[in-house]
Amino acid sequence: MAAEKKGRGSVLFTGYRSLGLYSNHIPHVVRYHKRHKEFYVVTAVGKSFLTYNVNKLGQVAVSNAVPDDISCLAADRMLVFVAHGNLLKAFAKNKEVVHTYRGHEAEIHLVLPFGDHVISVDTNNTIIIWDVESEEEYLQFNFEKRNFAVSAIMHPSTYLNKILLGSQQGTLQLWNVKSNKLLYTLKGWEAGVTVLQQAPAVDVVAVGLTSGKIIVHNIKFDETLMTFHQDWGPITALSFRTDGHPIMAAGSPIGHIGLWDLEEKKLMSQMRDAHSTAIAGLTFVHGEPLLITNAADNALRVWIFDGPGGQGRLLRFRMGHSAPSTFIRHHGLDGKQILSAGQDGTLHSFSTVHDRFSKSLGYETARQSDWDSIIACHQNLLRYLTSCGNFVVIGLSNGNVDVYNIQSGIHRGHYGKDTAHDGAVRGVAVDGLNQMTITAGSDQMIKFWKFKSRELIQTMNLSISPTAILLHRESAAHLNTVFTSVKCTIQSLIDCFLLDSAVVSLTMSPTGDFLATAHVDDLGIYLWSNKSLFSLISLRPLPSDYEPVVVMLPGANEETEGKFKIYNTSYIIVNGTSIHLRYISTEPTLLEEISTLSSHLDETWQHIQTLCNQSLCVLNYMKSALL
After folding, report:
1. High-pLDDT (> 90) share of the chain, %
2. Residue 611 is part of which domain span?
3. Residue 405 belongs to a domain with what CATH number?
4. Is residue 284 included in any domain, yes or no?
5. Residues 509, 554: one domain?
6. Which of 295-299, 305-309, 428-432, 440-444 has maximum average pLDDT?
7. Residue 285 falls within a domain, yes or no?
8. Does the N terminus or the C terminus of the chain have fewer Cβ atoms within 10 A?
9. Do 441 and 399 form a contact (C-beta atoms < 8 A)?
10. Domain edge (last residue) among 564, 594, 611
11. Burial of 438 by CB count in 10 Å (0-12 exposed, 13-18 middle, 19+ buried)?
């Protein structure tokens, strides 16, 4: 009993995965896998990072979570470096932590892989160079923030053991990190440095400034080759095409991208509203006419430059809500689609199977009368869709209650002579037969109306103003169910667990396999699998003084530091069309930790079952042949 009072997590649900999270304000990182011969893009989402292939933008990996939100992201050929707080960690295989670097006393905001070393810069202006494998500090040096506050860092191509630092004061410094010597100081251009980007030409660097200027500078001779200026604010990101076209792309704080012709030294074209927020990162894929962009609007986009005029067109994208969800519901009988309405004014359909089936539902007035439409309401607008699906009843703050036809959008009438209530409407409901409409207002009145004739039937006075009303469908024969609660037959609490953020909406799939939740100040939708569908669960009543424990949201797996437990288990390895059954025995007892959920589709396991049956048939045939 004492253990039950303390809490044990959820009995019915276990975290499965998150939906609708693709990017935040941290710039993405592009990597090339030599063996796969494919480019991958890495984006940060809160406490973990996601890896996508560029060809299809399919998600290939989700990292284990770090304790705090990721503040910086970088990668080399083998590892992904993640900074959170004053710690720097190296991830292998896009998932588990293999190295941790401790030594900073402030939050890390810049990271640069540097061969066998990695360089990190914190907000206290301390630069530390680490040995990647040994995790030891190779070199550390500090700057006075009032003289040189480091705001950008890069390694100039072919400059052995050299790094170039940009500052908020506008000056640049070239350092030899092996000898710990300052080689040269560039005076700058009287504006803070925001971005440093290597050009395809050796010795040439593009410098983005807070003034909106872009300086293409030769650091060997300290000579400015060309200067551009954008009117959209500070430069947030820079990238050069490497497929034979002398084009430079520059990001802005308002989501526009400028494309500059380096031969003609002029603006070639603009990509306006590429994102709804500041461009966090943009990268031209090496040797290809592809531009990858991400921003804090929770969108990751790939643009292709294959048309005349040099204008990029959207090739593929992954996009979720740019503001938290307010309402979610499953759509369809198979439970594979979730409709989500957000504070950004958009309606999204998220697939629980694959991201390629997720989409943002747009709106258009053309041919709207040819099919049933969707009622989209603004924040705090009361509406009720009738059970027949043909009408919507909308309550307004001035006391009006209006009826509209869903398909045609025609106004069918209103309740009351002038207004239905003397104050704001607080609630609207319609019975299942479209015979009665019930409205509640801030005038402390509940009114019952005939739905078709809109004639007032009865009025009920309350002592206080109601905040909302709910029509209980299962007890629709009794009018008093609008105000009373229904008792459960069990009358006992069987499951309870805590989350680190409040739930604003939830929905259970029609098949009962997943529970989906949306949370306060969170852009994602989280899936919880119903454990009763794949294991036996004893639903015992919980004591009244039960203390639930906090459960992490799905997709926020704890970091493992590269250590794994192997228990007694048999597992299946599928390779092409062959199956290998293996058995590992390291402990005499089975433990609960061996159970885990698979992200594979049902067809995968059906295929495995088919292969198993084929193997059994072969074994039986061999046995009969021997006999």
Report:
1. 55
2. 569-626
3. 2.40.10.480
4. no
5. yes
6. 295-299
7. no
8. C
9. yes
10. 564
11. buried
Task: Examine the pLDDT at 529 and tell me if it is beyond 70.
Answer: yes
Using an 8 Å Cβ cutoff, are 41 and 51 in contact?
yes
State the Cα–Cα distance between residues 119 and 138, nearest whole angstrom: 10
Domain total for the chain?
3
Contact 441, 422 (CB under 8 A): yes
Within 10 angstroms of residue 148's Cβ, the number of other Cβ atoms is 20
Task: Retrieve residue 529's tokens.
Answer: 């699998």
Kind and range of the H or E element at 610? helix 602-626
User: Under 8 Å CB-to-CB from 101, ≥6 apart: which residues?
Assistant: 87, 88, 89, 90, 118, 120, 128, 130, 135
| Amino acid making up residue 294 | N
Q: 594 Cβ partners below 8 Å, 6+ apart?
A: 567, 568, 569
Q: Are residues 574 and 591 in the same domain?
A: yes
Residues 573 and 558 in one domain: no
Residue 453 vs residue 494, higher pLDDT: 453
Amino acid at 374: I
Residue with tokens 């979730």: 338
Decide if 502 is inside a domain: yes
Model pLDDT, residue 377: 60
Last-in-domain residue among 537, 564, 591: 564
Which amino acid, 228? F
> CA–CA separation, 130 vs 119, rounded Å?
6
Can you tell me the distance from the alpha carbon of 223 to that of 204, in angstroms, rounded to the nearest whole number? 9
Cβ atoms of 438 and 447 closer than 8 Å: yes
Long-range contacts of 68-71 (CB under 8 A, 24+ apart): 70/26, 70/44, 70/46, 71/26, 71/107, 71/108, 71/109
Q: What are the beta bridge partners of residue 202?
A: none
Q: What predicted TM-score, i.e. pTM, was given to this entire model?
A: 0.75
Contact 138, 117 (CB under 8 A): yes
CA distance 347 to 344: 9
Tell me if 449 sits within 8 A of 436, measured CB to CB.
yes
* Residues 436 and 384 placed together within one structural domain of the fold: yes
What is the Cα gyration radius of the chain? 30
65 DSSP assignment: B
Which stretch of DSSP H or E encloses residue 127?
strand 126-131
Neighbours of 380 (CB within 10 A): 7
